[in-house]
Amino acid sequence: MGASLMGSVSGFTGSGKMVIIEFLVEGSGSTTLDFVADSTFLLDSNLLDIEFTAIGGYFENAAGPPPATIYVDPSEITDPSLVPCTNFDVNISIADATDVYGFSFKLGFDPSVLNVVDAVLGDFFPPSVTPTVTIDNVAGYVEFSAELSPPEPPVSGEGVLATITFHVEDFGVSDLDLYDTELTDELGSSLPHEAYDGFFNNIQMAKLYIEPPEIIDPELLPSTIFSVDVMLDDVENMYGYEFSLGYNTEMLTCIGIMVHPVLNETHFTVSMMLDDGAGLIWVNVTYYSPANPITTYTPVSIVTLTFMVDNIGSSVLDLYDTSIVDVDGQPIAHEATDGYVQTLIRDVAVIDVTCSHTWAYSGWIVNVTVIAKNLGNVTETFDVTAFYNSSVIGTQTVTDLAPNAEIELTFSWNTTDVAEGIYTLSAEASTVPFEYNLTNNVYVDGTIEIRRLIRDVAITHVEPDLTAVYPGWIVNITVIAKNEGNVSETFDVTVYYDNNTVGTHTVTDLAPNEEITLFFIWNTSGLEPCHNYTISAEASAVPYEYDLSDNFLSDGYVKIKIWGDINGDGKVNMKDMSIVAWSFGSYPGHPRWNPEADLDRNGQVNMRDIAIVARNFGQTC
C-alpha cells in the first residue's frame, strides 16, 4: 500500500493519519501487526528517503485466562516461640496460573518486628532464572521480580514464586502485605490475578474458651443435665475478667453458675446475671488486694456453667464482650472461642406403605411399596421389614441414608402359599441406637384380601345367523357364556352392534365350568344401508374377577344392504336383476333357490321380489 503527491504540490509536514486499514475478523486469537522493513519507506519531494521509526501493533480477541492467585503461605503465623533473633520462612506462592512468563511483587512488613534477611527464587520458574531482589528493612518491604528468557516456554499451574526469610527483631504483630503484584505473559501483557496477604504474631495470646468445645450426644434428651467450663490459658498478670455467654433458650435452661478460685486465689468479688428468657449469662470477676495477679500457662477452669436440656436441637455457646485486665486495669490481649452443643437426633421412620392390589388370588405376585425416612440429623443404616399380619414378606437394608432423606423400597410378595383371608399390610424400620422416637418405626396400610375361590366368567362364542341383511330384517345372534371359575355365578350378558345395545340377558347361578347358550333377536329396522355393524357380547364383571380380558368377545360384522342389492356389491344393477330373475319361482329346496333373492322373506321368489329390485334399480351406496 502506498501513496504519492503529484505535480508541484508541496510535501506534507506534521502529524496525521496516513491510511485506515479495515480487517475482517476470521476467528479468535492474537497477532502482531508489523511493518515489513524492506517495503516501508517515506520519500521527500526529491524522492530521497526520510528517516522514521516504524512501530507495529498487536491484536487479540481471545478470552483471557482465569485469574491466578498469588498468596502468602502460610497465611497466618501465630507462634510465641518465634522470639527475637529467630528466623522463619514464608513462601509467596501461586495457584491456577496460565502461561506466566514473568512476575513481580512487593511484600510489606513492620520493620520494628521483622527484617528480611534473604529472598530466593521458588520452584515455579526453573533455577536457571536469575531474579531481581531489593530488600529495604528501613521502609519495611522486599521487592522481587523474575522473568523467563527464550526459548523457555511459559509456565502454568501452581508452585512457589519466592521464599522470603525473616529475622524476628522484637515481639509484636505485623501484616505481611502483598502489593504491586504483576504477572505477564510471553508478550509482556498483564495476566489477571488476585493477591492475598499474610499475618505474623509472636505475642503470647491469652485464651478464653469453652471446654469441651463441642458436645454432640444422642443422650442429650429433655431433662438431661450437663456442664461446661469456661477455660483460661496462657495469661500473665490477670487481675480480673468479664464475659457474656449467649445460648439457645429454646433448647437449654441454665441452672447453675459456679466461679472457681483460680490457683486458689480467693480475694475476688463476683457480679453475675442470668436471664434465661433471653438466653444470656454475664459474669464479672475482679480481684482485690492482697490477691496475687494470675499467671498460668496451663488451662484452668474459671467458671462452670450447668444446663438442663429443654428440647432436642442445637445451640452455640457464644462467648462475647470478653475482657481480661491486669493489675492496672489495662486490657490483656486474648482470643475467645465459642462452644457448641447439639442433640444427636437418631430417628428413622416408615412414612408410607402402599400395595399394588386391594385383593389378589393366591399365587399372584403383589408389590408392596414402602417409603422409609431418616428424621434425625445423622446418617443411618437400618433394616426395613414388610409384613402381612405378623408374617414377613421380606427385609431390605437401607445403607447410609442421609438426614432428612427418604428412600422407596419395593417388596415382591408371592402369595402362592397364602391362605384365603384378609391380611393387614405393614412395615417396620429396625431401631437405631439411642432412637428418639420409636412410635413412627411402624406403619400400617390397611388390608388386602387373598382369595382361593376363583371367580371368572367369559364369553366364548358370538355368532349372528346372517352377515348381510336388508333394513328391517331380523338377525338372530347366538352367544355362549361360560363360568371358568370354581363358584356358581350370576351375571349379565349384553350384545352390541357397534356401541349400541341389542339386548341383555341375566345368567343365574351358572355352575363352575358350565356353559350357557343365549339367543338375542336384533331388529334392523331403521338402520342405514351401506354400513357394517360390529357384533360383540360382554359379560358383566363379577366381584374379585380373576381375568377380565375374556369378558368381551367380538365376532365380525353384519352388513346392512340397499334394498335390491342381492350380490352385496353396493349397487342395484342388472346383475341383481339377473339373480332375482334366475331364481324366479324358486322356494326352499328348489334347485334355483337363493335366499338372498327372497327380499320379502315369504319363502318364495316371485314378482314382489322382482318389483323391489326394479324399484331400487340404479341406487348405490
Task: Walk me through what this model shows.
- This protein is mostly beta strands and 621 residues long.
- It has 5 domains: 134 residues, Immunoglobulin-like, CATH 2.60.40; 138 residues, Immunoglobulin-like (Sandwich); 104 residues, Sandwich (Immunoglobulin-like), CATH 2.60.40; 104 residues, Immunoglobulin-like (Sandwich), CATH 2.60.40.10; 42 residues, Dockerin domain (Type 1 dockerin domain), CATH 1.10.1330.10.
- The chain contains 2 helices and 42 strands.
- A 6-stranded mixed sheet has the order 4-13-11-6-9-8, with no helix packed on it. A 6-stranded mixed sheet has the order 15-26-24-18-21-20, with no helix packed on it.
- Helix 1 runs antiparallel to helix 2.
- The longest helix is centred in the C-terminal third of the chain and has 9 residues.
- The mean pLDDT is 91.
Features:
621 residues, mainly beta, Immunoglobulin-like, 5 domains, 6-stranded mixed beta sheet
Task: Give the helix/strand layout.
Blueprint (H helix, E strand, L loop, with lengths): L29 E4 L23 E4 L7 E6 L2 E3 L8 E14 L1 E7 L5 E8 L10 E5 L4 E7 L7 E14 L4 E12 L8 E4 L1 E4 L4 E6 L2 E4 L7 E9 L1 E4 L1 E7 L5 E8 L8 E8 L4 E8 L6 E3 L3 E10 L4 E12 L8 E4 L1 E5 L4 E8 L3 E3 L3 E10 L5 E9 L2 E11 L4 E9 L6 E9 L12 E10 L5 E8 L3 E2 L4 E10 L5 E9 L2 E11 L4 E9 L7 E9 L12 E9 L13 H9 L24 H9 L6
Helix pairs in contact: 1-2
- What is the count of helical runs? 2
Task: State the major sheet.
Answer: 6 strands, mixed
Strand order of the largest sheet: 4-13-11-6-9-8
Distance between the termini: 88 Å
Residues in β-strands, percent = over 45%
Gyration radius from CA atoms, angstroms = 51 Å
The proportion of residues forming helix, as a percent range, comes to under 10%
Number of domains: 5
Structural class: mainly beta
For the secondary structure, the number of strands is 42
Mean pLDDT: 91
Report the CATH topology name of the largest domain: Immunoglobulin-like
CATH architecture of the largest domain: Sandwich
Which CATH first-tier class of the largest domain would you pick?
A: Mainly Beta
Instruction: Indicate the low-confidence ranges by residue numbers.
Output: none
Gross morphology: flat
